[in-house]
Amino acid sequence: MKKSPTDTYVDIELFRNDLKDIDWNFIENIVSIYKISICKRKINCLLMTNDATYAYGKEICKWLSLKHNPKQPQKIDNLNGKKIIQVDSSDELVVVLTVDGLVYLASEDSEWQTNNTFRLISTDNDRFEMIACGRLHLLLLRQDGTVFAMGDNFYWQLANIFDSSYDTLVNIGLKNVKTIACGLVHNLALTNTNQIYSWGCNENAQLGLGAVDFARETPTLVSFPGGPFISPIKNIAAGMHHSLFLFEDGQIFRCGYDECYIDDDDQNTMVPKKLPIENVLNVACKNDLEISLVLDQSSNYYVLNDLDDENEELKKKELVQLKKLDGQPNSFVAASLMAIRSPITFGLTSAIYTFETNDPISFIRLLDNADNYDVEFIIGDKRILACKCYLRMVSNYYNRMFSGQWQENKQVMINSYSYDAYYSYLIMLHTGHIRINQLNIAELIDLANCYGDEKLMENCKTFIQRDLNERTLLDYFPLINKYQLDTMHDKLVELTVENILPKIADNLLENKENIMKFLELNLNEQPFFFLKK
Predict the structure, then answer these.
(1) What is the pTM of this model?
(2) Which of 53, 149, 392, 396 could form a disulfide linkage to 79, CB 3.0–4.6 angstroms apart?
(3) Residue 530's pLDDT band (cuts 50, 70, 90)
(4) SS3 at position 477
(5) Correct CATH for 353-438 of 3.30.710.10, 1.10.3720.10, 3.40.50.1470, 2.30.42.10
(6) Is the Cβ–Cβ distance between 75 and 53 less than 8 Å?
């Protein structure tokens, strides 16, 4: 799939209010979540476990002929056994893409003929690698780079045809495309040659074509002030009535304005305009939101067009608001909670869990306090300040470290772990909480083993157990083998027998080389120890 997630992982705690009525035993099995854009004030979600996909919320259950139960998400039968890799939605429809390139759609609108379930959109042998959803239409990017569309065509969202199309995929006429995006009623496409095409509604200059008009029926090349850029385009995104273009060098441009403050004589407002922020890493927006969120290289989040700002004259003068969010959110979901007081998922979002490890009383003021410390942990060019007395009290490892000949040491060099992982561990010792994800699990489980921290080891085991599936098996197998995680035996056997071995058998003749690499890799790791029980 070419569409990378906006958030790699988010803490499930951010959705505590949305999911407060659900039994926690179910929530613990959620591996990814998508909040559907239906009636912004109402809660509607798709919840994925390793085994199934569930609907939660009155509206989405109604669309699927399921009975909403506030305490129990409802399993979606015709998505059973299907690994979903992307989801997009509006207040009129929700669309999912599976790992095998199939697209399913659900809607209350009878035009879509979904028969109160998820309708398979793909036809013949077509396989898709990306989807994008407007309010009443959707785009599909086929694996060969060809763009198709379906749905309403009032603003020429389907490009060169006259009527709407709810039954048949419409070939837009674009090829060699690698990324697509939908606003409310306008579209963007980025090609492998670093060109951007736009079409559909242009009443707010959201197409970036130097003019304001009703709509453009033909995909048209977007031009930037000053001519072509050397830096490749990293990402494109579309909000309700605006578009965003992020370059690999960290520059970000915007066109279209939700408040319609456009002077017909000022051509600069109708083409992509550079925003006053540098070193941008990523951007997030949705087809039903007037705001966008931006993340820079320093882990700061910004909101564009803050809806709480009532200074209309300032808006009219500056056209775009750019406001830094306080409080250091650690994901776009967390930033959305601060910006609009509701957690929003920008695409399918993997969930992580904050593990409580000891007394919930926080001693965080003892960590990195320049006015009160007696030891520095040096990691590369960074340092972490701490108090020996507290560390000796909460950790047997540190009690041994700061005894005897180590007692007078004021600096400790850490070479085996990254700054982020080690800092996370020290935060755990001071607050009782730690966030574990696929990026830090290898370091944290090694640290737990080396430092003899049984509670951290249990949390690492719990995380792997929850996240272990066909897709992650080879990632976690070296850890399971190295640290002898016996509790994973049954699940490894089940995954290997049901998923891995059949694929090897079915494709033996066609994939000899890959199978030999697989066997060589895993035999070196003594992979079948878990079969010896």
Answers:
(1) 0.71
(2) 53
(3) very low
(4) helix
(5) 3.30.710.10
(6) yes
